[in-house]
Each structure stands twice: as C-alpha cells, then as structure tokens.
Design a protein that fits this description.
By secondary structure, the chain is mostly helical. It contains 16 helices and no strands.
Length: 439
C-alpha cells in the first residue's frame, strides 16, 4: 500500500509540468518557424537532433540503469560519481570521434544542414549526457519537485532565450543554435548540482558500480535505440535523399506539431502505471484495459482537434509552412496508434515482461527504415510521414495484442470504450483525495 498524499501531489505535479511544458514547447516551435522560415528551421532541427541521437546511440541504456540503481537505494555518492564520470567520458569520446567526420556527415545524413555549424551543435553533447544522467539520479530518488523544476526551467529558458535572440535580436539560425547549446549546458550544470545536493558530495569512485550500471543498462539499449530511431531515422533519411533544408523544415514542423499528442500517453504512463506496477498482477490486469481505451480515446480526440487547428492556423499564421499540413495529417493516426504502445510498454515492464517491448520496438524500426527507403525517394516528406504511420500503427497493434494476452482480456476490451469508463476514471482520480487505497 502506498501513501495517498504523495501520490496525489505527484499526479498533480506531473500533469501540471507536462501541460506547461507542452505550451512552452509549442510556443518555441511556432516562434522558430515564424522567424527562421523553412530552410533555417530545417537546418536547426537537424543539428539539434545530433546531440540527442548520440545520447540514444552511445548511452548504453545508462539513464534507465541509473534510475533503477538510484531508486533501489544504492550508495548515492558512488552512484553519482560513476554516473557523472561515465556521462562526461562517453560524451567527450563522441565529440572527438565526430569532429573529424564533419565532411562525411555533411555529404550524407547531414546534407540538409549547414555543416559549418556542426561543431557548435557538438558542444551540447556533454550537456545532454550530464543532464540525462543527473535527471536519472533525481528521478530514481523520487525528487519530483526538483525533476519537474528542471524540466520546466529548461523549457522556459529555451522559449525566452529564442524569443530574445531570434525573435527580437534577429540572430537567425546561428543565434538559435547557440541559444539551444547555452540552455542545455546551463540546465545540465543545474541538474548536476541538484544531484550533488541529495547527499554530501565526496566524489567516491568505485569501478564496480560503473561496471554494474553498464551491465544492467546494455540489456536495455536495444529497446531504447530502436525506440528513438523509430521516431527520428526519417529526419536523417530525408536529409540524405532530398538534401533540401526547406523540405526538412516543413517536415520538422509537421512532426513537432503531431507529436504534441504524445503529451497524453506520456502523462498517463507516468502517473498511472507506477500504481499498476505496485499492484498484484491480477489487479494490474483490471486497470490496463481502461487505461488503454481511455488513452486511445483522448489521443484520438486531441489528434482531430489538432488537425483542425493546423488546417485553420497554418495558412494564416505560417503560410510558408502550408505544406506541413499534409504530413502532419498523415502522421496523426500513427501517433494515436503509438499512444497505446507508450502506455502498454509501462504495463509490460511493470509485470516484468520487458522482452516483448524490445522485440516490438526492433521490428517497428526495421519496418520504418524499409518504408522510408522506399517512399521518401518517391513522394518525399509525405512518404516519410506515411512510413511513420505504417510503423507506428503496427507497433501499437502488436502491443495491444501482446498486452491483452498478458492481461487475459479480449482485444476489443483494450480499444472499445465502455459506458462505465468515465465513472471508473473519475473514481481513480478521486481515490487519493478521498484517502482511498492507491492499489
């Protein structure tokens, strides 16, 4: 049994943080689109994707491993020292490897970016690693207030910084990129300080802790890697095949807008599934169908509203990005399908079945790559959106089938809304406030 007070406070904090982050992220996206235009937005989007791609590629599952070890109560000083050392060491190695490869990258996957600015983007890589590893420690210790403050602070600083540097000073692509690097680095420093303040800092190195983290994390790397590049491989392939930063800018705005719908499944998974994971498996099986159904319903409603809003707003506010409408509309049904996968992966992890998650993520990535290789040369950015629609939908369908079998329920119960869902959802929300059990 868990205390209801912290659960309710955590629920409000997570939803509040994600809601505010949603608006800040959308504001930054529209600001950059309006001020930079398609060509420079495409270059910016591709360059800032490099640091996060390197984190996914070379972090070896360490963020999840650090969260697990931190939450388990391992010696925090040794864990923190190992995490920061691994983060800095891996990130600096990545920078040293990528710097000499600028011309090769500029001729291939970064063809749509101004390659002269790649060294600026690489400066953000140590910050990305340190921020991710420090946040993993804070989250593992369940310091949600600190974690939420860092997330909101980073989003707010990026929006304000881009507003001043790009919107007012008109520093263009170069200013936008330096703002991203500065905000990322500053947030990483604050996260490291926040992690250091959890317990007195003695910087006690223990190689066995680092080995343990790597041993645990590397088993999670395939799913993490496949999941990230299922979302982002299309960007690099568009750059490689089309070599058109304007087309990439149009597509990046479509992706950024469509992925706003991920707010719903991400929030549901973060708040509700720790409750399910703490329950007996039979009890968890009673929650998973309604969570899946309601998440699909809410995400579908958000996708419809977003499609209507984009169709109305883009021609008036962002006429240069009118071509973003079609790929956004193509992407949205896939986003709805993938919302089920995001939630159900939490269920499968909670009952100790992470294997199917990795298998589905890997298969989805392969489908995504093949579809992109076929469709992008034929129909351009709409082909990339269609490839995502195919792979996202298959991913969601597979996770629904697997989860329904694990829960022992009919597949229809996972996707068809019941009349009692609204009442049950309201009871779940009210439970912590009324002092009821959270199990």
């Amino acid at each position: 049994m868990s205390r209801t007070g912290p659960f309710w406070i955590g629920t409000v904090a997570v939803f509040g943080t994600r809601t505010l982050g949603l608006f800040l992220s959308a504001g930054t996206t529209f600001l950059l689109a309006h001020t930079l235009g398609p060509k420079d937005l495409g270059g910016y989007y591709l360059l800032v994707l490099v640091p996060s791609s390197m984190l996914a590629l070379v972090s070896f599952g360490l963020p999840a491993a650090i969260t697990y070890a931190s939450g388990r109560g391992d010696d925090l000083d040794r864990l923190r020292t190992a995490a920061l050392a691994l983060g800095l060491g891996l990130s600096l190695a990545v920078v040293l490897v990528l710097l000499p490869l600028g011309s090769q990258l500029g001729a291939t996957v970064l063809a749509a970016a101004p390659i002269s600015l790649l060294p600026v983007a690489l400066i953000a890589i140590p910050g990305i690693f340190v921020l991710s590893f420090s946040n993993a420690i804070i989250l593992g210790r369940q310091r949600l207030r600190r974690y939420n403050s860092l997330l909101i602070g980073q989003s707010a600083a990026l929006f304000i910084g881009q507003l001043v540097v790009v919107g007012i000073v008109h520093a263009g692509l170069v200013g936008a990129l330096w703002t991203y690097v500065g905000v990322t680095s500053a947030t990483a420093l604050l996260a490291a300080i926040s992690a250091a303040r959890l317990v007195p800092f003695r910087s006690e190195w223990d190689a066995s802790v680092a080995r343990g983290l790597l041993s645990f994390g590397i088993r999670l790397q395939p799913a993490s890697l496949a999941g990230f590049f299922s979302y982002r491989a299309d960007v690099f392939l568009i750059s490689f095949f089309l070599r058109d930063p304007a087309a990439l800018g149009v597509y990046s705005l479509a992706v950024s807008i469509a992925e706003l719908c991920f707010y719903i499944p991400d929030a549901v998974s973060t708040v509700l599934f720790p409750r399910v994971a703490a329950s007996e498996r039979a009890s968890a099986a009673t929650y998973v169908p309604i969570v899946a159904r309601v998440t699909l319903l809410l995400t579908a409603a958000a996708a419809i509203a977003l499609a209507i809003g984009v169709a109305v707003v883009f021609p008036v506010v962002l006429p240069a990005f009118s071509a973003s409408l079609m790929p956004a509309v193509i992407l949205l049904p896939g986003i709805v399908g993938l919302s089920a996968s995001k939630v159900l992966s939490g269920y499968l992890s909670g009952i100790g079945r992470p294997g199917p998650i990795s298998a589905v993520a890997t298969a989805s990535l392969l489908v995504n790559l093949i579809a992109n290789l076929v469709l992008i040369p034929i129909i351009g950015i709409n082909g990339a959106a269609a490839a995502s629609l195919i792979s996202y939908s298959l991913n969601g369908a597979a996770m629904i089938v697997i989860s329904s079998r694990q829960a022992g329920v009919d597949i229809r119960d996972m996707v068809i809304i019941h009349g009692s869902d609204v009442t049950m959802a309201w009871s779940t929300i009210r439970a912590p406030r009324n002092g009821e059990s959270v199990r």
